[in-house]
Each structure stands twice: as C-alpha cells, then as structure tokens.
Design a protein that fits this description.
The structure is a single chain. The longest helix has 18 residues. 38% of the residues lie in helices and 17% in strands. The protein has a 5-stranded mixed sheet, sandwiched between helices. The chain has one domain: Rossmann fold, CATH 3.40.50.1390.
C-alpha cells in the first residue's frame, strides 16, 4: 500500500496547489511502479502535522510506502525534526519525496536525516 501526503501550507515563500501536488505525486508513483491513490491532505494551520501523526500511529499503514509531495513540507515542523525518523521508519517500509525524487528505507536513516536537515535549513535561510 502507498500512503500519499500533501499540504497546502506555504513551503518557503510559495504555496503549491493540490492539483499540482497530485500531478507530481502521480508522476512519481508511475516512475517507481507504485499505485497512485488520493493523498491525505494536512490541515492548513501553521505548524500543524495532525494528519501526519495520525498516519504514523495507524497500524493499518504498517509496512506501506509513504510518499510526501516534498521535503519542504517540513519547514515549519514545530519540534525536533530528528525525532521523527524513528516513528516514520517504524511504520513505513520506504519514505519518499516526490518533488525531489528521493526514497529512503530504514537502513538509510542517516542519509534521510542529512537530506531533511540540509533541505529544511537551506529553505529556512532563504526566506
């Protein structure tokens, strides 16, 4: 099973429409032989990751592939971003970022964290 996740909150200085996020997610899924399904949208409130936390906690997604539209969805993550990797990889087989065309498995946690921190830091500095 593939779980797709979108957000309408600003990513840096821009907002990406649901339509455009879905186009990117569909393309990523096609490229990687994954079944596209309608994504779970996050609430628009600043620093809100309620839907993501619900996805992580749900046992029905255990062993699935999680596909984010972009790593930049984490720029307003309210907590310590390094704490999320264990939760993600305890639930999901792969964690993917469609816009950046990146995929990570549990064995690549340090690469995943480097990817998150470099991208989030660079976007926070530029806006």
């Amino acid at each position: 099973m593939n779980v797709l996740y979108t957000s309408m909150r600003p990513m840096g200085t821009m907002r990406i429409s649901s339509r455009n996020q879905n186009i990117c997610l569909r393309s990523f899924c096609n490229k990687h032989n994954m079944v596209f399904s309608l994504p779970i949208p996050e609430f628009v409130y600043p620093n809100c990751f309620v839907q993501l936390f619900n996805i992580i906690k749900s046992s029905s997604y255990k062993g699935s592939n999680l596909v984010f539209y972009s790593v930049h969805q984490f720029t307003d993550y309210p907590g310590d971003i390094s704490t999320i990797s264990d939760s993600l990889f305890d639930t999901f087989f792969t964690v993917n970022f469609a816009l950046e065309d990146q995929s990570f498995t549990k064995g690549q946690v340090s690469d995943f964290m480097d990817f998150l921190l470099i991208n989030i830091t660079s976007l926070r500095i530029t806006h």
